[in-house]
Amino acid sequence: xxxxxxxxxxxxxxxxxxxxxxxxxxxxxxxxxxxxxxxxxxxxxxxxxxxxxxxxxxxxxxxxxxxxxxxxxxxxxxxxxxxxxxxxxxxxxxxxxxxxxxxxxxxxxxxxxxxxxxxxxxxxxxxxxxxxxxxxxxxxxxxxxxxxxxxxxxxxxxxxxxxxxxxxxxxxxxxxxxxxxxxxxxxxxxxxxx
Length: 194
Hints:
Oligomer: single chain
Low-confidence stretches: none
CATH superfamily: Imidazole glycerol phosphate dehydratase, domain 1
Number of helices: 4
CATH topology: Ribosomal Protein S5, domain 2
Helix content: 25-40%
Order of helices and strands: EEEHEHEEEEEHEH
């Protein structure tokens, strides 16, 4: 069964088309007007071994918030659609990921209940169009639309670029591990439903 989804979102602030393929290293083509956001989304897909295509535009003249948050909404909806009834998935994923001065601890549960714990202190700055403060909003939008429980903690790091890139790499790897299937029809829950 293919685990692919296409999500479109058009508002007065943004226009986004997103295609996600959870299985196999498919095409990765990220095109937003925020170069660093493109870079970390590509890192997520590359390290998670996903196919991911995003074409996004928006009112970045007023800031990166709308575009980043709406991309999180679209990715969350795509993940929810790809996972469907969640039969045979591993469900849990976690990693401790170092990147130069940064170390990120990330864990997640594809358990059907949205929750975000974001314990990452960052200097307020803008990296190639991406404000560091909107990274949390991306993950809040993602968890709210994917119904995933996600915990992100920075245990070390000073450089915002390294910290944010490490977060997205860790997110890709942990989500890949949690979304893997064992080709059974079992639901990984004592309730029999996720």
